[in-house]
């Protein structure tokens, strides 16, 4: 499946809920989200049908997102349904890790290939302040549970927050010293809750290279630049949506939990999928992929044009 600019689109981020058990400062307000009626959210069968149609169109990787996907009732059933899709090469899931101590083994058994775990600080009080509801030890226990369940290549997503966690770059990277992990530092984007934050909060990933001059470039993985410290087992990734726009190589589309296809995270364009099936659904997905814009304008000082917060779109 290709868009009108010749980019191959083979990656679907499928949001299963806009709800979350955390209230991260850069993602949502203190009161959380206005809870939608159950009928407004895609049923498991509808999510599976969208996954099937996307794979029929050429998608080879599906990432389940939220909100927090592990708060969605029936998430294991959905994983099993998607894992059966012929042609799907990779099924992954992004989580804050809080539910992994109880669910990691079941997720592995249900066919999830790999996990991304969000972790922005290793300081318990700061973790509590950033997430408003979370406990650091729960996420650390979740990472241990994922390893025990047999997950490999787990990626830790750390949003760079100037003046908040930039003093922890070395400590966070050190998680890769002995573990088969990729610690990915992600530049904060002006979207949703943080769209009007002060500029000093938006830190270039160059800060990581300055804090860790021993890093050696070893290639790339999707949108991430990959580095390794000699002798360390894992890797460090830099994802630069602000300082080095990677739109020209973007291969993804997103579907929200209420059934709207977004050709681009930062566009206000949304294509309704709910109620479509079979060839009609596949045609709509192809139209959405074809409609991917050339890129966003964040680096030029513009805020995201998305009309939803990140938890509503799917992280």
How would you portray this structure in words?
This protein is an alpha/beta fold and 315 residues long. The chain has a single domain, classed as TIM Barrel (Alpha-Beta Barrel), CATH 3.20.20.70. The protein has a 12-stranded mixed sheet with strand order 7-8-9-6-5-4-3-2-1-10-11-12, covered by helices on one side. Helix 3 links the parallel strand 3 and strand 4. The mean pLDDT is 92.
Which descriptors would you attach to this protein?
twelve-stranded mixed beta sheet; 9 helices; globular; 315 residues; TIM Barrel; alpha/beta; single chain
Total number of β-strand segments? 12
Radius of gyration of CA atoms, rounded to a whole number: 19 Å
Superfamily (CATH H level) name: Aldolase class I
Going by helix content, strand content and strand pairing, the class is alpha/beta
Assembly state of the chains shown? single chain
CATH class: Alpha Beta
User: What global shape is seen?
Assistant: globular
Strand content: 15-25%
Low-confidence stretches: none
Q: Count of helical segments?
A: 9
Q: Spell the H/E element sequence.
A: EHEHEHEHHEHEHEEEEEEHH
Biggest β-sheet: strands ordered side by side in the sheet: 7-8-9-6-5-4-3-2-1-10-11-12
Largest sheet: 12 strands, mixed
Mean pLDDT: 92
Question: What would the CATH topology be?
Answer: TIM Barrel
CA(first)-CA(last) distance = 22 Å
Share of helical residues: 25-40%
CATH architecture: Alpha-Beta Barrel
| Whole-number count of domains | 1
């Amino acid at each position: 499946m290709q868009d009108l600019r010749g980019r191959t689109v083979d990656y679907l981020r499928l949001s299963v809920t806009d709800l979350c058990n955390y209230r991260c400062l850069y993602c949502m307000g203190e009161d959380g989200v206005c809870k939608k009626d159950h009928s407004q959210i895609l049923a498991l069968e509808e999510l599976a049908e969208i996954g099937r149609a996307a794979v029929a169109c050429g998608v080879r990787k599906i990432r389940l997102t939220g909100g927090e996907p592990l708060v969605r009732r029936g998430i294991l059933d959905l994983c099993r349904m998607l894992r059966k899709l012929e042609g799907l090469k990779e099924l992954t899931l992004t989580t804050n890790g809080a539910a992994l101590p109880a669910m990691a083994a079941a997720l592995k058994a249900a066919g999830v290939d790999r996990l991304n775990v969000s972790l922005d600080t290793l300081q318990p009080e700061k973790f509590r302040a950033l997430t408003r509801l979370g406990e650091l030890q729960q996420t650390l226990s979740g990472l241990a549970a994922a390893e025990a369940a047999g997950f490999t290549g787990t990626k830790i997503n750390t949003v760079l927050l100037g003046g908040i966690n930039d003093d922890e770059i070395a400590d966070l990277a050190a998680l890769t010293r002995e573990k088969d992990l990729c610690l990915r530092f992600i530049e904060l984007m002006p979207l949703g809750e943080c769209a009007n934050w002060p500029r000093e909060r938006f830190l270039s990933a160059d800060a990581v290279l300055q804090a860790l001059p021993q890093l050696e470039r070893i290639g790339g993985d999707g949108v991430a630049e990959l580095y390794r410290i000699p002798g360390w087992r894992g890797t460090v990734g830099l994802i630069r949506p602000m300082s080095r726009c990677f739109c020209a190589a973007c291969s993804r589309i997103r579907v929200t939990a209420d059934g709207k296809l977004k050709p681009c995270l930062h566009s206000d364009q949304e294509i309704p999928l709910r109620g479509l099936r079979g060839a009609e659904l596949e045609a709509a997905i192809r139209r959405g992929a074809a409609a991917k814009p050339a890129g966003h304008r964040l680096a030029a000082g513009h805020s995201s044009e998305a009309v939803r917060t990140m938890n509503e779109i799917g992280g």
